[in-house]
Amino acid sequence: MSLLDGLASSPRAQLQSSKARMKKLPKKSQNEKYRLKYLRLRKAAKATVFENAAICDEIARLEEKFLKAKEERRSSPTDLAFMMRVPSTPWATAVLEYMPA
To answer: Which residue ranges does the record annotate as region Disordered (predicted)?
Structure first.
């Protein structure tokens, strides 16, 4: 009898008994589990696509803003110099009086 008791408590016997206790999920609930995983992934992918589009729009807006500022910066000195040469406005003539020739 003691030999059988030792056999029952062996690791292999414990493994088999734990397998018997493990409950297999029914097919329907497994499908539901994977369906929910799929929906979560789909939702995450959709959110990522919208976030990416928003980032692209913001980058395009900022690039446009920088280009506009760059053009204004380039044209400003030349416009100002042109206005200084043509004293058609009172402030331009006043500035020309104080500027050295």
So the answer is: 1-29
